[in-house]
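#lab-general

N.A. 3:47 PM
ok so I finally got the sequence cleaned up, no stray characters, all 243 residues accounted for. can someone with queue access submit it? mine expired

B.Y. 3:52 PM
send it over

N.A. 3:53 PM
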Amino acid sequence: MVAGTMNANFRQPLLALMALSMALLGSTASTLAGAGSGDLDRVVARANASEQSAYRAYRRLEAGAGDSKKGWLEAWTEVSPGRGLTYEIVGEGGHEYIRSKVLRDILNSEQKLVANGQPLRASLTAANYTFGDGGTTESGLLRVLLTPLRKGHGIIAGSVLIDPSDGRLAQIEGRLTKNPSFWLRNVDVEWKYARLGGAVVPVEVSSTGKVRLFGASSFRMQYDYESIAGRAVDSTRKLARRD
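B.Y. 4:20 PM
back already:
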């Protein structure tokens, strides 16, 4: 009985970490919605017009629960018409459960989203949020405040940074309005984007949260692009490749 209890206690922070990671992926596939007017409407409409391009990229995924349960995985990933998302793991280390049950599940879940034609980033439409003018950043990006109209999976309270000149999505950040599980709370998520090879693509996604009784959990996934839409690109990001 004691062994069973210890095993259950060991699993809980890792299951919560899995929920944290899947919530991040699910949020990028969920609909971020809002109601705005005038210039905000036009800027948001341009951001929504972006479509995912075929690409080949090297990725590094990292996750951790508590002080000692950490793992990482590196893989070549490719999205192409007719094949969807394929990946080849070239390096991994750390906690086995995190590598096999958290990080691999992120890639497998993304495969399913691509195969089903679901978007991998938030779409800005009018249903779940109201928009607010958050001013501009020092670099000239427009900050759009997101005020959720309801609580739900993938809905955040936060903001979006957009380049007003071309509607390029630069960043989304905020706190999930609904906890992914009983064990996980205070989940903050962030997506970063860049224009490479004429396309707007994700370069980093990350999340942090609090696991009841066990403390902080975290997840991060970085992209280093080799090609986009069949053209070679220099992403300026040089991940520590182990292949």
